[in-house]
């Protein structure tokens, strides 16, 4: 039993993006659409579940990522990786130009596989975007949904994913 129940109409709610250096500095995707990125990251513990990879595959099916963008796919676990292979999602993502890495923290901890250089921007499904989190303290990390990250990898700029859904 609940003390109160609230209902909200979210039909007009845009996808949201957290701006660099603060997870709580969130804006609608239209406010940052068109900002260039060099990397998109879909995965790690927060954005590497089966449904996350499924939506990325749905958006990328029949599309290619921009040649100047690195798209990293990092499933959250080996079981998730195996299931995504079985369902055909990984083949779609690789066909679009993504790079698959082993289930891990990846660049989220700033140690390997996609570490950002000074001046680079990444749109990521990871949980943190503090300075230096994914490499250089001069890099910018935008946090988003897997759909927004996938759509952005196609165009090379932050993109509203609804045009691909």
TrEMBL record:
GO biological process annotation, one example: carboxylic acid metabolic process
InterPro entries with a match to the protein in the record: Acnase/IPM_dHydase_lsu_aba_1/3, Acoase/IPM_deHydtase_lsu_aba, Aconitase_4Fe-4S_BS, Aconitase_4Fe-4S_dom, IPM_dehydratase_rel_enz
Keyword terms of this UniProt record: Iron, Iron-sulfur, Lyase, Metal-binding
Annotated TM spans: none
Residue ranges of domain Aconitase/3-isopropylmalate dehydratase large subunit alpha/beta/alpha in the record: 32-156
Example GO molecular function: iron-sulfur cluster binding
Keyword Lyase among record annotations: yes
Database matches in Pfam families: Aconitase (PF00330)
Name of the protein in question: Aconitase/3-isopropylmalate dehydratase large subunit alpha/beta/alpha domain-containing protein
Organism expressing this protein natively: marine sediment metagenome
């Amino acid at each position: 039993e609940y003390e109160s129940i609230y209902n909200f109409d979210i039909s007009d709610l845009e996808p949201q993006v957290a701006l660099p250096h603060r997870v709580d500095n969130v804006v609608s995707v239209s406010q940052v659409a068109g900002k260039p990125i060099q990397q998109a990251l879909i995965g790690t513990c927060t954005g590497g579940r089966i449904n996350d990879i499924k939506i990325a595959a749905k958006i990328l099916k029949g599309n290619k990522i921009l040649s100047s963008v690195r798209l990293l796919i990092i499933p959250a676990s080996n079981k998730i990786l195996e299931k995504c292979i079985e369902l055909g999602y990984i083949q779609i993502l690789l066909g679009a130009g993504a790079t698959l890495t082993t289930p891990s923290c990846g660049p989220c901890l700033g140690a390997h596989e996609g570490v950002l250089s000074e001046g680079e921007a990444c749109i990521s499904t990871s949980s943190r975007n503090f300075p230096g989190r994914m490499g250089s303290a001069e890099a910018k990390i935008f946090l988003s949904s897997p759909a927004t990250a996938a759509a952005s990898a196609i165009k090379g700029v932050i993109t509203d994913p609804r045009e691909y859904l």
